[in-house]
Amino acid sequence: MKKSIAILAAAGLTLSAAALAAEKPSVDLGKRLFNDAHLAQSDNDRSCATCHADGAKLEKADKNPDLAGQINRCIQGALGGKPLDRESADMQSLVMYVQSLSKKAPAQ
Asked: Could you report the per-residue pLDDT of 48-74, keeping only the tens digit for each?
C-alpha cells in the first residue's frame, strides 16, 4: 500500500511539473516568476523583486533591445541561477511582465 501511494505521489509531481512546463507565456506567469526566489534554480533567497520592488529601476526596460539577455544576466549574477532559454514560456513571460512594469512607471 505504501509503495502504491509513493508511486501515485511521484506521478502527481511529474504531472504537475509537466502542467507548469506547458503553461503559455503571460504577464501573470511573468509576475509569479519575478517574485519567485527559486527562479532558474537560484541558489539564494532573492528574487527579481528583491532588487526591483514595484518595478524599481525598470522604467526604461522596454527600450532594451536585448531585454531577455539582461534578464539572464540578472538571473546568473544577482540570483545565482541558470540562464533561461530565450524561447521558453518562462523567459517570454518575464519579458512581458518587465515590459508591463515599464509602461506603468511614472514619467520623469
From this structure: 999 999 899 999 999 999 999 999 999
